[in-house]
Amino acid sequence: MIIHETNLQDAKLIELQRRGDERGFFARTFCADEFAAAGLPTKFVQQNMSFSALKGTLRGMHWQRAPHGEDKLIRCTHGAIFDVLVDLRPASPSFLRWQGFELSAENKHQVLIPKGFAHGFQTLTPNVEVSYLVSQAYTPEAEAGLRWDDPKIGIEWPLAPTEVSDKDRSWPDIAQVDKLYAD
Asked: Which structural domains are found in the chain, ordered by start?
């Protein structure tokens, strides 16, 4: 794996190193030793998957409040997504900044999202599958979110959304979020 820095402190873009021959290729998507050597989280307790049928589907922006914050390792296993992170850590130099990454079955890139970030994505193709490892079990009472179209954050989504859940439409603006991530 090749671990790349991003514009957001502690978030990483991970490029798989493929070893191939006439049969195809092999690549590691996670290695505890390599992650530990890079100072990245190594404990994941759940693997989740989402499926979105329609191009333009938007999911987000979500996080788990402390002490239930999750490190996430996100990858798209079928189709393509525009994956977005927003740094919600008040002490971070990248506080309230966002960055988006194209993740696809073709490019095989992954994003490591540390605790304290909001996360969401938009599907760029139909029939998208996203798989992600998380470091904490989901805790419904710790769930939080912010509006995907909050003008203060200013995320530039590549497509007009075709599908957004009622729950995701109802998240508040960042100015109305009563408590950002804090340990």
From this structure: 44-176 (2.60.120.10)
62 labelled catalytic:
yes
Measured distance CA(183)–CA(39) in Å, rounded: 19
Residue 67: cis peptide before it, omega within 30 degrees of 0:
yes
pTM of the model: 0.93
Which residue is catalytic, options 4, 62, 138, 181?
A: 62
Active-site annotation holds for 181: no
HSE value, Cβ hemisphere, 13 Å, CA-based, for 94? 17
Pairing of strands 57-64, 143-145: antiparallel
pLDDT at residue 74, rounded to an integer: 98
Active-site residue identified among 109, 132, 138, 181: 132
pLDDT-based confidence at residue 156 (cuts at 50, 70, 90): very high
Question: What mean pLDDT, rounded, does the chain reach?
Answer: 94
Cα maximum dimension of the chain: 55
